[in-house]
Each structure stands twice: as C-alpha cells, then as structure tokens.
Design brief:
heterotetramer; A mainly alpha; B mainly alpha; C mainly alpha; D mainly alpha; C: mainly alpha; two-stranded antiparallel ribbon; 20 helices; globular; D: mainly alpha; Helix Hairpins; 0% strand
Chain lengths: 181, 147, 501, 116
C-alpha cells in the first residue's frame, strides 16, 4: 500500500517538473516520467491491462509531442499567464479545495471497493460469470468486448474521429477553391 | 531527411518483425492474457513509426503508403460495426456475442471468446492504422516547413 | 430499431472518408448525408410516441448498457434529426465549392452519431464516451476552414472542451466510488437509499462545472463566440442549434433529475447560472458588430432561458409544488425546441448573407429583402420569433417560463426574464433595421442572388417557427411537451421503466 | 484516504498548468496530466486490499477468484479513457502545429495579440 503512495508522490513531483521546466523538451521528458511512474503503480494496483496500455500510449504521446516541438526555434516561453489570471486561478483553487476539504471524511476508505459495500453489484456478476457467459478468461476484456461492447464501439469511433480530424487539419491540399477564402 | 545512421537502420530492421509479432500476440490473445486490441494496435503503430523515423519518410511511404493505412483504418472500423450488426441479425440484439452463444470454444483456448478475438483483431488494425497515419501526416507536415 | 440511430451515422461516418480515397469530388457525399438524415428523421417521428428500453448485447440493465426511450429522449431525437436534415440540405449547395467533402460529411455524421448516443443512452459512462465522439468531431469541424482565426478558435474550443470532459469523468469516477454502479436508474435507486450524501454533492458540483463548459454557461462561455462564428455555416447551425443543448443541458438534467434525484443545492445553482448567462449573454450581444458573433452570444443568452426553466422546475419540485414544476419544465423544454429551430434558421441565414455580401459586418450589409425576398422574409421570421413577438414560437415559450416564475413566487427571476427579452428584442431590432430594411447595398463581384438550395431550408425552418407556436395549446402541449417534462419530474417512473422494479 | 488525495493533487497540478501556462505545449501537457490523474483515481477506487488481477488462471476456482480479484469495471473504463486521451492529444498537437505555422509562436498571449 505504501509502495503505491510512493509511486504517486513520484508522479506528482514529475508532473510539477513537467509544468515548471523552462525548456519544452525537458518538460516533455518529465511528462513521460509521469506516465511511466503511473503505469508501474497500476501494476501494483492489480491492473496489468492498464499498465501495458499506459506504457505504450505514453510512448506514442511522447513521440507525437516531441515531433511537434523539435526544431521549431525552441520555444522556451517562461513566465505564466497575466497576473489577474494567476490570482483568479489561485482563488479558484482555494474555493475548490475548501469545498472539497469538508467532504474528505466521506471518502470510501482505500482498499474497500464499491463491490463489497453494495448488495449485488454488476462487477460481482462480471467476476462470477465472466468466463462462461462471455467466454474469455481476462474479465476486463470480457467487459470491454461483450458486456459493454457498445462502449468500445464508441471508443473506436472517438479515435477514428480524432484521427480523421487531425488529418483534415494537417492536409496540404487546398480546401476551398471558391472566392473569398 | 533520409533517416538516421546506418546502425539505427539495421537495428530497427532486425527488431521490427519481433515488435509486430509481439503486437499481434497482445492483440490476439486479449481475452486470455493482459492486453487486448488497443495496446496491440498501438504496438503495431509504434513499430511502423520506428521504421519511419529510422528510414525517413520517403522510403517508408513507398513500402506502406499513408493512403493504405487510412483504408485499413476505415475498413477495420467498418468490420467492427458489421460484427455489431451481425449480432443484431443473429444474436437478437446489437453487438451481442452471437458466436459465443452459438458454439462456445473451450474456455482457455485461443478461439474461446466467441466474436471477441475477431473484434480484438479489428480494433488492433484500426488503432495501428490510424496512429501510423497521424504520425505520417505530422512528419509530412513538418517536412514542408524545412524545404 | 433503436440502435439504428447510432449504427447508420457510424457506418456512414466510417464509409465516407473511405470513399473519398477513390472518388475525390462528387455530390455523392452530400446526397448520402441528406438520405441518411431524412431516413433518421422519419424513424424518429415513427418512434416519437412510445416508451421503452433496448438492451445492448442482450444483457439486462445493471449488467449491460441500455437505451431509454421516454418522452424527453424521443423529443430530443426528433429535434436532432430535423435540424440535421435541414442543415444537410443547406450544405448541399453551400459546401459545393469546398474539397475534402468526404471527410467533412464523415465528421458531420460521426457528430450526429455522438449526439444520438448521448440522447438515448441510460448509462453514465456511455454518455461520457458518446459525448466525446460528438465533441471531438465538432472540434475538427470548427477548424475545417484552416484559416488563422479558425484554427485558434478551434484550439480554444478543444482545450475548454477537454477540461470539461475531464471534470465530467472525475464526477463519474466519484459517483462510481460512492454508489458502485454506472446505470442511471440503479444510481438513483442507490442514491435514495444512501444516508451520507456528501460524495453525491461533490460529483454534482463536478458535473455542473463539466457540463457547464460544454453548454457554455456564463463563466465558461468564452469559447462559443469564436467557435460558432468561425465554423462553416452548416456546422455552426448544428453547434448552436443542437450540440450545446444535447451535450450540455440535456445530459446534465438527465443526470441531475433522473440519476442523482435532485441533490438539494443543484436546482438553485442551475437557476442562478441560467439567469446569469441569460442576462450577461444578452448584454454582450447588444454591442456586437459581426452577425455570427451576435448570434453566438444570443445562443449563450437563450441557453440561459432553458437552464432557468429546468432549474426552476427542480426548485419547485423540491419545494413540493408539482403542478407549477411541470409547467416550468415544459417552459424549458419548449424553449429548447424553439431555440433549436430559429437559431439554426438565423445561422443558415447568416451563411446566405455572407455568401451574398462576402462579409458579416452588420454596418456594411443592408437591404437584403431587396436582393433576395424569400430569404429576407425567412430571416425576418427568425428574428421576430427569437425576440418573442406574439404569433411566433419564441413568444409562447418565454410566456410559459414567465408564468411558471410568477406562480412559483420567484418574482426576481420573472423580472430578469422580462428584462432579457427586452434586450433580445433591442439587438434583433438593430439587426432588423440594418440588415433587412435599409436600401440595397451593392457589393461588386458577388453572386447577388441566393440560390434556391440555400433559401429552401430557410423556408422550411420559418414554417416550423410559425407551426411550433401551436404547441402552446393544451392538447398539443399534453401530447408533446408534458411527457417530456414528466420524464424528468418523476424519477420513479424512469427507474420502473428501466429496472422494472 | 490519503492515496485519493495524492490523485487529486496530481489533478490540481494539471489544472494549474492548463490555466496558468502561456506555452501551448504546456497547456496540452496540463490536459494530459489531468487525464492521468483521473485514470489513477479510477483505478484507486477499484482497488481491493491485496487484491489480484481480474484474470482467471486455468485451475483457479471461481468463488475464491471472486473473493480475491480487484474490481474489473473501473479498469475497463480506464482503457477507454486512456485511448480517448490519446485521440484528444493527437488532435491538440495537430492544431498546435497548424497554429505555429500561422503565428510562428506557441505563446498564447502573442497569438491573442496577433489575432486582434
């Protein structure tokens, strides 16, 4: 349990470095540290599927981010937004955390999942009947591909729409032959 | 921009088939071991990106071609939708696991999850194709600024 | 039959970019889009009356995902299909000069699929996924013209939309942490049994912030004017007419009314946010020069009306006045339907004007009725109904909201509603005076006439604007709007429908 | 309970970066960090003390597996949310590249000035 907290503290430090680092490249590298630290934490949290997906997606994100910023007359923009924005966001954080703090007591205590507190939750059903109802041994993929396959269809569409949008924006061809544009 | 040094080229040429094999393994056995369509597809895309970086854009465009990756992307998404519609026709409701209902394979075998391995493969190709296309366009787009 | 609402747009969305690889330029894409939206409109009208659920993959509700078709979702599906059909007809001629139409209509169709997915689903996380599908397609569509301003507007819209989505996901995570289920009906059952509701308040606050970013409530509205004015016209008509409503206020009210059984503070917050965005949106719109920016700010203000109506309904329910609460909810939903029609009419009209004059600056264009009488007349109908002139539909829905505010003894709210209607009347009269009635300002080198393909949809929408006024009459209202309001009001009805308890 | 707080601190760092940074890439990174924080929170919610991965081995009996396994539902949600995050990142980066081509800078305050 303490190990998970150590990894989470590591990711927070890496995130702070990523946000405050002067040069863009070093902040991207520490962003990678956030992702990989998290994926190791996921291993300890009993989620191997997520660890694999997180590592691999983190690599692709880093490659895309570095590809977009390398050689652009490195843009090390120091300093934050204008002062009022800074003060505004600090007030916002103060309000948010105050509103948040008085509910800290109601957090479900760590390690006791919603499965145990309620009578017959859906996740108990998945665990019990995952193998013979859906046929797969990996319950997470059972859920993804059979019990909640509609989610995954939406998921595949999200990626398809994002990539289609990115292609439309990055295309070299002229879009508009008419006058005016 | 004709790719990186010779060492990187030879290493990536040797490693590429293993990465693709690992990607297909992760995608195919998604319903048995950790992994699944998404990480498998991303690994396959990562392998193509590695080749593009190592050999430079023009070489890789001849071998794979960005247009074909787009076609793979659309076709794989369409096949996922058709699996759903087939479920609608055979299994009574949209996206139902009609193969598993019909003839379930042996529980821990490769073909055990009904139409789960098929959907896994479709997602794997889709994610692989689409991520490679985005990276190719990003790389291509940047090329214009340099020349 | 229900999954066809999402399956057909998804199929077309995947197919059209594929076809574009082979046939670069053709009217095929716009034609396919019109056919698809026409068929879906017919399907939605057939499906309008009945209630029922559809189990995805055959799994019963708490296990699998299910669609819920009740009064409210069937009405929303009809509104989506109608506006999409009219916009597709408009885009046939408007987009003819553009290339890359396969990708444009592919993204348009995916946005449609996302909106249908959000409107019909009965599962919280599934609503988030299809909200992302619709939102991401609209980000790319806003930046479709790829000019410097469009790209910057699309980036701002994307950043604020992504922040909104993260807040919504955090709210869902907290909800799952405390309730242990994702099905909206099961959540409401478990929330009613829960003693310590503090965690629910947290996720409600996150939902209000997240969906507020999507629905452009006042503190989070800065993306809307840039996005809606720089998007291609059919897309800004869809965005303003339907997208911010389905993704914003419909999803939020479905979660708050049916899912979380109206946590105590939520309706009050909703009411005051609605009043605030109504007032501030109207004031800013007064000073706008650009026609589309004026329409965009007026969208922010009109969204305030809808949020006010629904929020008031929630307040009255918690105060134990069901009759007036139903009236307030009817007012909010009626205004949602009206705003969809006349706002998309005005945006399509502004697209025609832009094509005719080459600019959107109000001071330079005038006397449009001289150049093209039909679209001038349709535009006049639009401006009159949005500013609430009696015979048209805008007046009736504002009337219902004001009556509900007065009967519910919320006089300051009634005051704000009346004052904002006066402001709306002011800035649309300004548009009316400059745009329609002035002498004809000739612009060299422009087509000088709006082709039929552009003003035919305007006429259809103008007829709707007049026809929808009839919904105010009790017998029509009872059939169309009352079941929608009751779907929100009686949570127990919803859970009985879904879980069969 | 303290572990959940760590995930929220990570979320606050991401939000701070989105609101306060002038560099477009830092704003994109802020959103990525917020996505990571929410995914971590979802997995933490589904963790059962000394629970094991929700994958049935060949010989394991179902009842003992059900008692020991971690909640699989949040993991399915996180896989979906990671890939949504990847899609949003791809779109954001392509927009940032386009903006750089038009405005020659990643600094959002300059862009606002140039946009007029």
């Amino acid at each position: 349990m303490v190990l998970i907290q150590v990894f989470l503290v590591f990711t927070i430090i890496a995130a702070l470095i990523a946000v405050e680092a002067p040069s863009t490249l070093s902040s991207i590298i520490s962003l990678g540290a956030v992702g990989f630290g998290l994926s190791i934490a996921f291993l300890w949290l009993g989620a191997p599927d997520i660890a694999i997906t997180q590592v691999v997606v983190e690599i692709i994100t880093l490659v895309i981010l570095i590809r977009a910023t390398i050689g652009k007359g490195v843009t090390d923009i120091k300093g934050n937004e204008s002062k009022p924005m800074l003060i505004g966001s600090l007030i916002l954080f103060g309000l948010g955390s105050a509103f948040f703090a008085n509910y800290l007591g109601a957090f479900p205590e760590f390690g006791k999942t919603a499965m145990d507190t309620f009578s017959e939750p859906a996740s108990q059903f998945y665990l019990k009947f995952g193998l013979d109802k859906a046929g797969g041994a990996n319950i997470v993929n059972d859920i993804l591909l059979d019990f909640r396959a509609y989610d995954t269809l939406g998921e595949a569409t999200v990626l398809f729409a994002a990539i289609l949008g990115a292609i439309t924006l990055l295309q070299k061809k002229v879009f508009f032959e008419g006058k005016g544009e | 921009m004709n790719g990186m040094s010779r060492i990187v080229k030879t290493v990536s040429r040797w490693v590429a088939p293993f990465i693709i094999a690992f990607g297909i393994y992760i995608a195919l056995t998604g319903h048995l071991t950790p992994g699944g369509g998404f990480p498998g597809g991303v690994i396959i895309a990562g392998c193509f990106i590695l080749l593009t970086l190592a050999y430079g854009k023009d070489r890789v465009k001849k071998i794979i071609g960005v247009g074909s990756a787009e076609i793979v992307d659309s076709l794989a998404s369409l096949s996922f939708l058709c699996m759903g519609l087939l479920g609608y026709v055979f299994g009574g409701s949209f996206l139902s696991n009609f193969i598993q209902a019909g003839f379930p394979g042996n529980p821990f075998g490769l073909l055990s999850g009904g139409n789960m391995p098929i959907i896994n493969l479709a997602i794997g190709f889709k994610v692989g194709g689409s991520l490679f296309v985005v990276f190719a366009f990003l790389a291509l787009f940047r090329a214009i600024e340099e020349d | 039959m229900l999954p066809l609402f999402v399956a057909i747009p998804l199929g077309l969305g995947f197919l059209l970019p594929l076809l574009e690889e082979f046939r670069e330029r053709s009217k095929l894409y716009a034609g396919a889009m019109i056919l698809e939206t026409g068929f879906l409109l017919a399907l939605s009208l057939v499906k309008f009356g009945d209630k029922g659920i559809y189990r995805m993959g055959g799994w019963p509700p708490p296990i699998g995902i299910n669609y819920v078709l009740d009064g409210l979702s069937s009405l929303i599906v009809v509104v989506i299909s109608a506006i999409a059909f009219v916009t597709a007809i408009f885009s046939l001629t408007y987009m003819s000069e553009y290339r890359n139409l396969g990708k444009f209509y592919g993204l348009f169709s995916l946005m449609l699929a996302g909106m249908y997915g959000v409107a019909l689903t009965g599962d919280v996380f599934n609503m988030y996924v299809y909200l992302e599908v619709a939102a991401i397609s609209s980000y790319a569509l806003v930046g479709f013209n790829r000019g410097p301003e469009e790209i910057e507007a699309s980036f701002k819209y994307l950043v604020m939309g992504a922040v909104g989505s993260v807040f919504i996901l955090l709210g869902i995570a907290m909800l799952y942490g405390s309730v242990g289920s994702l099905n909206i009906a099961e959540i409401s059952v478990r929330v009613s049994e829960m003693a310590d509701k503090s965690f629910i308040l947290l996720s409600t606050a996150l939902f209000i912030v997240g969906f507020g970013l999507k629905a452009a409530f006042v503190p989070f509205h800065s993306w809307l004017p840039d996005a809606h004015s720089s998007a291609p016209t059919p897309i800004s008509a869809m965005l303003s007419g339907v997208l911010i409503k389905v993704l914003g206020i419909y999803a939020l009210s479905r979660l708050l009314f049916n899912g979380l059984n109206l946590p105590e503070l939520a309706p009050q917050v909703l009411t005051w946010v609605g009043a605030g965005s109504m007032f501030i949106g109207g004031m800013i719109a007064l000073g706008q020069k650009d026609l589309k920016r004026l329409l965009a700010y007026s969208s922010v203000s009109q969204m305030g009306y809808i949020t006010l109506g629904l929020g008031m309904g929630g307040v009255l329910i918690s105060q134990g006045k069901p009759a007036i609460a139903t009236l307030a909810l009817i007012g909010g939903i009626f205004h949602l339907v009206n705003h969809a029609t006349y706002k998309s009419l005005l945006f399509l009209f502004s697209g025609g004007v832009e094509k005719l004059y080459g600019t959107r600056d109000l001071s330079e264009i005038s006397g449009i009725t001289g150049l093209s009488p039909v679209s001038g007349a349709a535009g006049t109908v639009g401006t009159l109904s949005i500013s609430g002139i009696p015979p048209f539909n805008g007046f009736w829905s504002k009337l219902v909201i004001v009556i509900a505010a007065i009967w519910g003894e919320m006089y300051p709210l009634a005051g704000i509603v009346l004052f904002t209607s006066a402001i709306t009347l002011a800035y649309y009269l300004k548009v009316q005076k400059e745009l329609f009635l002035g002498e004809v300002a000739e612009r060299a080198g422009l087509p000088g006439k709006i082709s039929p393909g552009l003003y035919l949809p305007l006429v259809i929408l103008a007829i709707c604007c007049i026809g929808l006024g009839l919904l105010y009459l009790p017998e029509f209202r009872g059939v169309v709007l009352k079941p929608a309001a009751l779907a929100l009001q009686e949570g127990s009805e919803y859970t009985k429908l879904v879980l069969g308890l | 309970m303290f572990t959940y707080l760590l995930a929220f601190i990570l979320f606050a760092v991401g939000l701070y970066s989105v609101i306060n940074k002038r560099n477009l890439i830092k704003i994109i990174m802020g959103i990525i960090i917020m996505e990571h924080a929410v995914n971590a929170f979802l997995i933490l919610i589904g963790y059962r003390l000394s629970g094991e991965a929700p994958i049935i081995e060949e010989g394991a009996t179902v009842t003992e597996f059900v008692a020991a396994a971690v909640d699989p539902l949040p993991q399915a949600l996180v896989i979906t949310s990671i890939v949504i995050g990847l899609g949003v990142v791809a779109l954001m980066v392509s927009l940032a590249v386009r903006i750089y081509q038009h405005y020659e800078t990643f600094d959002i305050t300059e862009i606002r000035k140039l946009r007029g």
